[in-house]
Amino acid sequence: MYLELAKRNLQRTKVRSILAVVGIVIGVMAIASIGIFGESLKTSVLENFKEIANEVIITPAYSNGYSKIDESDINKLEKMVYAESVIPIKSDRLIVEYKKKRSYTTIYGMDEEDVDKLFDADDGSIKLKGSCVVGYRLAEDKDLRVGYKIKIGNDKFRISGILKKEGRRFDINPDFVIFVSPKDFEKISDEGCSMVIVKVNELENVEAFKNAVEKSINGRKEKVNIFELQLITERIDEAFSQINTFLMAIAAISLLVAGVSILNIMLMSTIERTKEIGVMRAIGAYRQTILKIFLLEALILGVIGSTIGGVLSILGGYAIDMIMLHNAKYLFMPSTAFYIAEGFFVGVVTAVLSGIYPAWKASKLEPIEALRYE
Amino acid sequence: MIQLIDVKKIYKTEFYEVYALNGITMEIKKGEFVAIMGPSGSGKSTLLNMIGCLDKPTSGEVIINGVETSKLNDKQLTELRRDAIGFIFQQYNLIPTLTALENVELPMIFKGMSKQERERRAKELLKLVGIEEVANRRPLELSGGQQQRVAIARALANNPPILLCDEPTGNLDTKSGEAVMQIIKELNEKEGVTVVLVTHDPSLSEYAERTVRIRDGVVDVP
Ligand SMILES: Nc1ncnc2c1ncn2[C@@H]1O[C@H](COP(=O)(O)OP(=O)(O)O)[C@@H](O)[C@H]1O
Ligand SMILES: [Mg+2]
To answer: Is the ipTM above a cut-off of 0.90?
Structure first.
C-alpha cells in the first residue's frame, strides 16, 4: 500500500518524475556503456597478445658473467614437460657486404622451421640451406630482393626470402635482421645462444615451467634470466582497468547531477505535501512511516531509471563499440552483464541516497506545524 | 476520560508572544458531547490540538484515559492519536491521491491491519456515513459534504473512543452541515463516542449536552 501511495505521488507530478528518471537513465547509461566499451577495448587489445602470452624468454644472466646459454641447458629445456616448443637463437652483429656497401647488421642463427613458425615470407620463401632470409625493413633500406647475394664475413649467401613487416613484437623483432641456419652461423661467428624462446603448452603452466627452470638450471647459480610475456598482458590488463575505472568515475558525475535533481524535486515535494504529512501524522503515521513513503518514492525513481538505463546501455555499448572498434563481438561477454548490474546498482543507490535528506526532513515535521501549513 | 489541568500555550515568535491558552482546567466525561465555543482567535483550535496530542502545552497537563500525555514520547503519542482519537477538520484534509475508500483505510494501514479486514471495515464505514456509492472517487471528485463524510468515516476507522471536531461544518452549506452534525450526534448517542466539537456557530451548540465558552484563552464563566 505504501508502494501504491508512493507511486501515485510520483504520478501526481509526472513531468518532474519523468525528468528525474531521465537523469538517472543518462547517468546509468553513461557508466554502464563506458564500462562495457572499456572492457571491449581491453579484450580486443589483449587479443593481439594472446599468441605470445604463453611464451617465456630465457636470456643469459649477464650480470653474473654469463654471455650465452649452454647447449646442455637448452637440452634440459627441450626435455621439460611443459615446453611445447623451444627455439634457441644465436645472434651477433657482423659486417655485411651488400652490393659493395658494407655495414654492421644483426645476424640470427636459427633453425629453418623455427623461423618459418614465427614469421611469414613477404616475398620468396623461408629456406636457410646455404641461403638467408632478410627482415622487411632491412630489405627496404638496402634495396634487397630475392635472389640477390650478400656477403657475411667471408661467406656468400643467396637471399631466399624477405619477411613480412612485423612491427613490434615482444620477443624478437625480425625487421632489421638477417636469418641464417645455426650451422652457417657457426662458420661466421663464435657467439653462442643469446636467447631461447619457449612456448609453454598451457597458459596456466607458465608458472610451473618457470619454477622448473629455476630448479634445474638456476639451482646452483643464477645462469639465466626468465621473462614471461604473460607479465605484459597482466600490465595491460591492469592499465586498462585503471583507465576504465577513471572513465566510469567521470561518467558517474552525470549520475551525481541526477542525484541532485532528485534531491531537488523531492525537497519541493516535501514542501508541497507538508499539510498531507501533517494529516498522516495526525491520524497515526509514525515518523518512520513518513520516512518510508518518501524513500520508496526515491527508490521507485531509481529502479525505473536504472532499469531503462541498464537496457539502453546495451545499445550504448554497442554504439561505442561499433564507432571505436568497428565491431561488436566483444559486447556479449559476462563483463557486460557485470557493468549493467553495476550501473543499475549505482543508479538505485544514488536515487535512494538523494532521497534520504528530503525524507528525513519530511519525517521531522511536527504534526501541528505541518497541519497548519497552507 | 479527558482532563486538562492548568493548560497554558504561549506561541513565541521573533517579535511577540501570543498567550493562546491561559490556564485552562476542565474535564470531559466518557460519552459526553461537549461544544467548545468562542469568538475567532480565542484559542479553541489550540485547545482541541492539545486534547488531540497534536501539540504540547507550554505548561500544564493533558490526561487522556488516565494517561499523562506529557510523559509520552513521539511514538506513543502517535499510537494514542491512531487508536484513541478521531479527527475531523474544517478543511476535510483528505489525501488527494487516494480514493475515498483508501482514505478511510489509511489509519488502519498505519495500524497494520490486513487488506481484507480494512477494506471490509472501510466499506462498512462509508455505508454508515451514507456515501458507499462514491467509494472509488478521489476527493477532488466529491462535494464538500461528501468529503466531510469521508473524513468522518476515516476518523472512525480504528474505532476511537474520542472524536474531535474542529468547525466540521465551517465549509459546508446549511443542509450538508446539518447532515454531518446528525451523523456525529448519532455516533455519540448510539456508539457512546465522546465528542468534542469546536465551533463559533451558536446554532451547533444545540447538538451538545454541554457548552464550554472560552475567551482569550481562558474558560469564560458566565
Ligand atoms: N503557530 C502559531 N503561532 C503564533 N500564534 C498562533 C499560532 N497558532 C495560533 N496562534 C494564535 O493563537 C490564538 C488562538 O488561535 P486559535 O486557537 O487558532 O483560535 P480559534 O481556533 O479560536 O480561532 C490566535 O491569536 C492565533 O493568532
Ligand atoms: Mg480555529
So the answer is: yes
Residue nearest to atom 14 of ligand 1 (CA): B43
Is residue B199 within 6 Å of ligand 1 at its C-beta?
Answer: no
Q: Give every CB contact of residue A134 below 8 A, 6+ residues apart in sequence.
A: A144, A159, A161, A162, A163, A177, A178, A179
Cα–Cα dist B141/B100, whole Å: 10
CA-closest residue to ligand 1 atom 4: B11
Write out pLDDT tens, residues B125-176.
999 999 999 999 999 999 999 999 999 999 999 999 999 999 999 999 999 9
pTM of the model: 0.80
User: Hey, what's the cell of B20?
Assistant: 493562546
What are the φ and ψ backbone dihedral angles of B148, each rounded to 5 degrees?
A: -65, -30
Q: Which of B97, B136, B156 to mutate to test the interface with A (most CBs of A within 10 A)?
A: B97
Task: For residue A215, count other CB atoms closer than 10 A to its CB.
Answer: 9
Find out whether A69 and A61 touch, Cβ atoms under 8 Å: no
Tens of pLDDT, residues B17-47: 999 999 999 999 999 999 999 999 999 999 9
* Contacts of B5 by beta carbon, 8 Å cutoff, 6+ apart: B25, B60, B61, B62, B63
Q: Which residue matches cell numbers 528525474? A: A20
Q: Which of A266, A249, A189 is nearest to A30 (CA)?
A: A249
How open is the CA angle A348-A314-A234, to the nearest 5 degrees?
90
Is B41's C-beta closer than 6 angstroms to any atom of ligand 1?
A: yes
Any alpha helices (H) in B53-211, and if so which ranges?
74-84, 100-111, 115-128, 144-155, 174-186
What distance in Å separates the CA atoms of residue A198 and residue A84, rounded to the nearest whole number? Answer: 7
A311 burial (CB, 10 Å; 0-12 / 13-18 / 19+) is middle
Residue B56 Cα distances to A100, A367, B26, angstroms: 111, 11, 17
Residue B143: CA count within 13 A, CB half-sphere: 9
Tell me how far the alpha carbon of residue B131 lies from the centroid of ligand 2, in angstroms: 27
Please list every residue in chain B whose beta carbon sits closer than 8 Å to the beta carbon of residue A300.
none
Q: Is A8 near chain B, with CB under 8 Å?
A: yes
- Name which of B87, B97, B110 is nearest A12 (Cβ-Cβ): B97
What's the rounded Cα separation, in Å, for the pair A95 and A102?
Answer: 6
